[in-house]
Design goal:
about 280 residues, alpha/beta, Rossmann fold, 7-stranded mixed β-sheet, about 15% strand
C-alpha cells in the first residue's frame, strides 16, 4: 500500500515555505534510511520537503497503489465514528483532503482540516471549492498548523481524525494528548494507520509489495527523487505495533480503545473514546 502519510512536526507560518518544491531534491538517501528515520533530528523539515515535492502526484499514487481501497478505508473510518449532525470534526494531517471530504459527506456541523505542508493544503482547498454539495453538507475549512500544538480550544471538537500520519509526528504522545485536550466529553479519536496481516503468508506478500515493488513503481510514477517512497516502508516498519500504540492511547487519557483491522490487517482503525 502506498500512503506515506504525513503530519505536522513543527509550526510554520503560511509564508515560511514556497508553494512547491522540486521533485529533483533528494530528501531521504539510502544511508538515511538504514536505521530508524523517526530518530533523525531534522525529520520535521525533511517530511515537509518530501510531501511538498510529491503533492501533485500524491492522490494518483494512492489510488493506483492501494488498488482503489484508500477511499474505502476512509469511508469505513468515518462510519466507525458515527457522525452526528451536531458534530464538529478536526482532521489532522489532512493532506489533500480526502478524509476531510469523507467526513463532510456524513453531514456533520463542521469539518476542519489541519496540515503541515502548504502545497498539499492547496490541493485540498481546490477540492473543497470544486465539488458540488448537497444541502447541509459542510465545506471543509483548511489551515496550516502543528499537531503537537493545535490551535483549537479545549473541548471544542467532537471528532478528531488522523489518517496515515501519526507515525510521522516527532512526539506521538504529545500529539495524542493534544487530540484528547480538544475533544469534548463523549468525543471520538479515529487513527487510521498501516499494520501487518496476522496470516504469515499474507504478511510476507504485503512486505514484498510495500518494501520492494511499490517503492519502485511509485517513484517512477511520481518522477520523484526525494526518497519519499523509500521512506514509506521504513517509517511503517519502525513505528509502534498495535499493542504499543494502544498503550500510547491509554497513556494519553483515552478511556476505551477499539481496533478494526481492514483488508486482512494491512491497515487498522484505532477508535478511542473520551469518557462522557
Amino acid at each position: 500500500m502506498i500512503f506515506i502519510g504525513y503530519d505536522t512536526l513543527m509550526t510554520l507560518t503560511p509564508t515560511s515555505q514556497s508553494s512547491s518544491i522540486s521533485s529533483d531534491e533528494i530528501v531521504w538517501s539510502a544511508n538515511d534510511l538504514v536505521n530508524d528515520p523517526h530518530a533523525i533530528r531534522d525529520k520535521a523539515e525533511r517530511v515537509r520537503r518530501m510531501f511538498a515535492s510529491i503533492a501533485d502526484s500524491y492522490d494518483l499514487n494512492n489510488r493506483i497503489h492501494s488498488f482503489g481501497l484508500d477511499q474505502r478505508w476512509r469511508r469505513k473510518t468515518v462510519r466507525l465514528c458515527r457522525v452526528k449532525p451536531t458534530d464538529d470534526v478536526l482532521d489532522v494531517a489532512c493532506g489533500t483532503g480526502d478524509l476531510s471530504e469523507a467526513f463532510a459527506d456524513a453531514h456533520p456541523a463542521s469539518v476542519r482540516g489541519l496540515d503541515f505542508t502548504e502545497p498539499m493544503l492547496h490541493i485540498a482547498r481546490k477540492k473543497a471549492t470544486g465539488r458540488s454539495r448537497s444541502e447541509g453538507m459542510p465545506i471543509p475549512q483548511y489551515i496550516q498548523g502543528d499537531a503537537m500544538a493545535l490551535p483549537q480550544a479545549d473541548r471544542s471538537m467532537d471528532i478528531v481524525s488522523i489518517a496515515f500520519g501519526i507515525r510521522n509526528i516527532a512526539d506521538p504522545v504529545r500529539a495524542l494528548c493534544e487530540f484528547r485536550r480538544v475533544l469534548r466529553p463523549g468525543g471520538r479519536l479515529a487513527v487510521l494507520e498501516f499494520s501487518e496481516p496476522a496470516n504469515p503468508l499474507l504478511r510476507s506478500l504485503n512486505r514484498l509489495y510495500t518494501r520492494r515493488i511499490m517503492p519502485c513503481t511509485a517513484t517512477l510514477l511520481a518522477r520523484d527523487r526525494s526518497g519519499a517512497y523509500r521512506y514509506l516502508p521504513r517509517s511503517v516498519a519502525t513505528f509502534h505495533n498495535r499493542e504499543s500504540f494502544t498503550h500510547l492511547l491509554n497513556e494519553a487519557g483515552f478511556e476505551t480503545v477499539r481496533l478494526y483491522p481492514l483488508t486482512f490487517g494491512a491497515c487498522v482503525v484505532y477508535l478511542a473514546m473520551v469518557k462522557e
